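Task: sequence design from structure.
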């Protein structure tokens, strides 16, 4: 069935969202038009406002409406400790743990030469400027445990070496509550290699 041109346009626009295919986009559009027009208008207003006013923090590159974000401005954060992540959602995940009190640098991706994503595209020039301040003593490389994430972490660690900045990688291993028989060999190998001493 073909819908009216404006409705087709709305359905197609909703498909830009992750995990939203044609059927889901169609259901969302029809739901907004059938029962939730007020919510749809509010969504449109907020979306437009966000697109126009949310930029990147000039220091850590997280999304922010102000030039320097709240985390970077906080006097309670350890400025010598920098956690490097691929995406803003990773910052949110780490913040939920309430265990990290340093600052962040968001790459907005990872190195992927085949896709034309090199050091400049993920802000490594800006990161190098932070290295040159002499404030940093440790980098926590929290890129994803993928081939690209590992390559990106290694590249950044090499970049930090001349500045005598310690580079550490987030631990990977067995999830709490899981059983060894169901864990894949790579995860189990990382867990054994990165084991911790309990006593003594």
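Answer:
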């Amino acid at each position: 069935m073909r819908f009216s041109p404006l409705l087709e346009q709305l359905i197609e626009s909703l498909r830009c969202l992750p995990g939203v295919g044609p059927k889901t986009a169609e259901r969302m559009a029809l739901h907004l038009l059938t029962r939730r027009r007020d919510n749809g208008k509010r969504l449109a207003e907020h979306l437009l406002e966000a697109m126009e006013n949310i930029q990147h923090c000039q220091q850590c590159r997280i999304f922010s409406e102000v030039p320097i974000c709240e985390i970077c401005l906080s006097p309670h954060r350890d400025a010598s400790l920098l956690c490097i992540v691929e995406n803003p959602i990773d910052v949110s995940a780490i913040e939920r743990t309430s265990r990290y009190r340093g600052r962040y640098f968001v790459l907005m991706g990872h190195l992927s030469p085949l896709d034309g994503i090199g050091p400049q595209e993920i802000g490594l020039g800006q990161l190098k400027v932070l290295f040159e301040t002499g404030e940093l003593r440790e980098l926590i490389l929290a890129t994803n445990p993928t081939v690209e994430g590992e390559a990106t972490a290694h590249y950044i660690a090499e970049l930090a070496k001349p500045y005598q900045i310690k580079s550490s990688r987030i631990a990977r291993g067995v999830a709490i509550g899981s059983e060894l028989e169901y864990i894949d060999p790579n995860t189990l190998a990382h867990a054994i290699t990165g084991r911790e001493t309990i006593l003594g």
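The chain has a mean pLDDT of 91.
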